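In this section we walk through a basic example: taking a raw amino acid sequence and producing a predicted 3D structure, encoded as discrete structure tokens. The instruction is simple. Fold the sequence below.
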Amino acid sequence: KRRGITRLSQGAKAFWEKLTICEDGLSLGTEARPFDDEGTPSKERFLVRGGVVESFLYDREAAALDSVQDSGCCSRGGYDSSPSISPSNIVISPGDCSDMAELGKYIELHYAHGSHTANPTTGDIGLEASAAFLVDKGKRTPLKGFMLTGNVFDMFSNIEAIEKKQVVYGSLISPRIAFKGVRVVS
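The resulting token sequence is shown next.
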């Protein structure tokens, strides 16, 4: 953000209007903590609310450089390492979809390789689907041998549905999300 290379800006509508994401060290994920590694108390910090970018992650140094009062997103690998910006738990708010089966036909992705190759600046991704199913009217057929390509920023702008039920995946607390416009490459 300070270098001006992100396509996100505070106060701008950048995502689907029903999307809310926060960083919350007090939620039930694996990164729960009463305070960050600089001693700043944990609290719910909205990053995106109603599709609008509200804030970014800050440790004390980055907050001071950006003239922002809200820090609290700092971790250290150990006592001998320097502090760096790092979230606690990321929480995606539930939506209003009872079950993805309401969508009819879709690809259900359980696991993919290649997320480490995503470009954090542009948001471009290419993932090899390792465990996936084609779901058509409730019938699940295993799929293999394909990739998904797209852009993370575009994906979170083109959400079709978000389920009501949240699940804890380590430090991510999220419902299942159905994205439109993701390209399938075989």
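Looking at the output, two observations stand out. The chain has a mean pLDDT of 92. The CA atoms of residues 28 and 138 lie 31 Å apart. In the next section we compare this with other chains.
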